[in-house]
């Protein structure tokens, strides 16, 4: 083990947001496959599971009443209502991972990202963009899970979310999955080098020069 391996490091908050249908879930899965040590923030939601989703894996699926009770107790570091359903992230398990030096990835919407920035101001925020409106329509209709009215609503929401992209530090366009992943991967690795996440490194290195340095 080298000396550099002993430097204390705090966990990074990585926030990834995107309009529905942009390919966010696929890109996040690729990042977690390559970096399995990343802690994943499993959100709570009041929407029903889709397809093969499992409680505690993609989301914690809870009733509206249970969600409101948690919110009233101040247990969420962010929460939002999206497409008529509540989504939220519990603070305690996230802080525990960060204190252990583990990075934590958040898959949340724009409203949640803005709230989360107040709780974790040093986080890295990434916004994924579709290459075009036409391609987003193709992806939304192609998955066959939404009605025409639902697709129209998601397109309207996508336009609103894209107008808020200036809030984010990084933009990644998912036209080519491989290229988009390489960009997301680069952002994640760069974020790990933020000085605020390595508070002891300068002092530890400068100490090697002693009082005469």
Automatic annotation (TrEMBL):
Read off the InterPro entries from this record.
Answer: GK/Ca_channel_bsu, Guanylate_kin-like_dom, Guanylate_kinase, Guanylate_kinase_CS, P-loop_NTPase
**Domain of life assignment:** Bacteria
Q: Which residues form a coiled coil?
A: none
Q: Cross-referenced Pfam families, in alphabetical order?
A: Guanylate_kin
- Annotated EC: 2.7.4.8
**Residue ranges annotated for the Guanylate kinase-like domain, each copy included:** 11-189
Lipid biosynthesis among the record's keywords?
A: no
Would you tell me the Gene Ontology cellular component terms?
cytosol
Tell me one GO molecular function of this protein. ATP binding
Answer whether the UniProt record assigns the keyword Nucleotide-binding to this protein.
yes
Enzymatic reactions? GMP + ATP = GDP + ADP
The residues that hold ATP are: 18-25
- Judged by the first EC level, this protein's enzyme class is transferase
Print the keywords alphabetically. Answer: ATP-binding, Cytoplasm, Kinase, Nucleotide-binding, Transferase
**Compartmental location:** Cytoplasm
SUPFAM superfamilies documented for this protein: P-loop containing nucleoside triphosphate hydrolases (SSF52540)
Could you say which protein family the record assigns here? Belongs to the guanylate kinase family.
HAMAP family membership? Guanylate_kinase (MF_00328)
* Cited function: Essential for recycling GMP and indirectly, cGMP.
What name does the UniProt record give this protein?
A: Guanylate kinase
The species is: Pseudodesulfovibrio alkaliphilus
